[in-house]
Structure formats: C-alpha cells, structure tokens
Amino acid sequence: MEITAQRICGDTWCVIEPKAIVPYYRLNEKEIILLDSGCLLQGELETWLAEQKLRVKAILTTHDHWDHVAAHQALQQVHGAKIYLPKIEAALHATDLGHLTAHANGNLKKIHNFFEPFSYCVDEEIGLEDGVLDVCGVPFSVVHTPGHSVDHVCYITPDQVLYVGDTLMSEELLRRTKLSYAASHEEDIASKKKLRQYDCKAYVLAHGSIEQDIGALIDQNIDYVCRRAEEVWRLITEPMSMEHILRKLWRHFALRDGMYYKNLEMGNMIRSLVQYLVSTGRLECRYYDGVDYYAHSREQEETTWN
Fold first, then answer.
1. Contact 303, 215 (CB under 8 A)
2. Does the N terminus or the C terminus of the chain have fewer Cβ atoms within 10 A?
3. What are phi and psi of 93, to 5 degrees?
C-alpha cells in the first residue's frame, strides 16, 4: 500500500493515503504536528513515519470518527503525541455510553467492541468558541463546523491552509457516494456556508482533494444534500414508519449489508435525512401506538393520516 507526502504550502504538508489525506505541519526536520491520523488500520502510517524519521509531537483532531483517529492510539503510545479533541467529542469519547449516545441506535456491547481498538487519552480539549490554539509554540486557528459530527472542527495552519476535515466532500466523492453522513444536516449546511468567509491559500478535504478555491464546491455539497433529501421525500408516498422508510431506501439505494457498525451508520444517514425533511417542513411526524410515522406535510388533507 503506497503512502506519499506532498508539500502544500510553506511548512504545511500532507500524507496521501489510499482513502484519506492527512495534513501535517513540520516543526523542524524531525518533528511534526498531525491533523487527524487517517483510516489505515494495520500500522501503515506508523511504518511510513518511521521510514521518514518523523516524530509526531501532537495530533489536532477534527472529530472522533474512527476513520480520522485510526492511528491515534499507536502514535500516543510510541511517539508520546499529545492529542487534542473538541470538547463535546472528548466527552463522548470518554465512555462506551458516550459512544452509544453519538450513535444513538446502537447496542452498547457492540459499540464497545468496535471502538476499543481506537481508544486513546485526550490530552487537551478544544473549547466551544472559534479562536487561536497554541500547539508546540505554533498558532493554529480553530473553526467550529458542527453537523457532520456533534463538535466537528476545522483547522487553519500558520501557512493559511484550511483543513476542512469532513465538512466538505470532493467532486469525485459527490459523484460516487450514495449517502452522506451528518448528525444534523441543518447544522452541517450552516457549517458549509460558514467556510465561505475564510480566504486561504489552499483547502484540504479529508477524503478527497486539495483545492485552491471551495466556493463552487460548497454549493455542490449543499445541492447534494438537498437532492438526496428530495429523493427521500418522493419515496415516502404514504404515512410510513421509520422502519418502513429504512427498508424502502435500503433497496432504493442498493445498500449492501456489511459489518454491524457500517449498517448502523447507513441507517443513521437515512434517519438524518428524514429528520432534515421534518425540520424543513417537507415531512410531518405523528405517533400512533408508540410508533412514529412520517408523511408529506399536507395541512388541507387530513385524510392522508387516516
């Protein structure tokens, strides 16, 4: 599996993995600060760092999803890396119940088994406000962009390179992704729009590309969510329970059953789109005999629910 490095601007570089781009800032010839640690599970990043004779002094984490923290544990143990994590993400990371809360429809034991290999100690929590964070004597700007996860953040390096994490998908990913993950699409769309105010030299997308401008990409990402939501809305042709919706959309998008956590996440992607449609007034939710049913909002057609 090939891993390469690319200089972006000044002392800001990135590790290019097969399915992720991991930025890093060079403190000197031997020491670096990582922004996330990617999604390689067999020690490939650690091996590459050893070959390059690089030591990780700190890791600035955008959020606590496994594909951004896969090497955290090893780098903390072997390199003594200091790990930074947003405050609310840190609280959820602290216990199995916290992980369960972040993935609300899971089973506690199975959630524990999945996250156990990704356990690490949080050395410093990042506050809830945007601002400047001093890391090893170097100032990084922190930009809060919640929505994809409960407390997702982006980082701007001293070279004015903005690492957007999972706030945006690349054009290629937009073309081939069936569904996108968001804890809240309302918050996520607001965070995407927030990125317009930052005029940087380069923008790094965690799972896709390095861009010189993201204005058009922000529009494409928002349009993607709106189109997927509209697709879901059209498929809800009568009052349907969430279970019924999940079954119908699973078939519609030709989703494949996989490992427990993957199935859980795909289900959550569908649920978040349904709830986005409720928030925007396209769907209405009512409860009958303890079951939540969803249908098009039709104030004049009460018979829809009968």
1. no
2. C
3. -70, -20
Q: What angle do CA 163, 61, 105 make, to 5 degrees?
A: 110
Residues 89/145, Cβ–Cβ less than 8 Å: no
Spell 51-71 as b/e; 16+ CB within 10 A means b: eeebbbbbbbbbbbbebbbbb
> Residue 155 contacts by C-beta under 8 Å, 6 or more apart in sequence?
35, 60, 62, 140, 141, 142, 143, 162, 163
Residue 2 to residues 17, 44, 256, 278, Cα–Cα distance (Å): 7, 9, 28, 44
Give the torsion through C-alpha atoms of 99, 103, 106, 112, to 10 deg.
-20
CB 77 within 8 A of CB 71: no
User: What pTM did the predictor assign?
Assistant: 0.94
| Cβ 295 vs Cβ 283: under 8 Å | yes
Rounded to the nearest 5 degrees, what angle is found at the Cα of 194, between the Cα atoms of 190 and 200? 150
Name the amino acid, one letter, at 102. Answer: A
Kindly write down the DSSP assignment for every residue of 119-156, as one continuous string. Answer: -----EEE-SS-EEEEETTEEEEEEE-TTSSTT-EEEE
End-to-end CA distance of the chain: 58
**Average pLDDT per 10 consecutive residues for the chain, totaling 306 residues:** 91 94 97 97 94 98 96 97 97 91 83 90 97 98 97 98 98 95 97 98 96 98 98 96 96 89 90 97 94 83 54
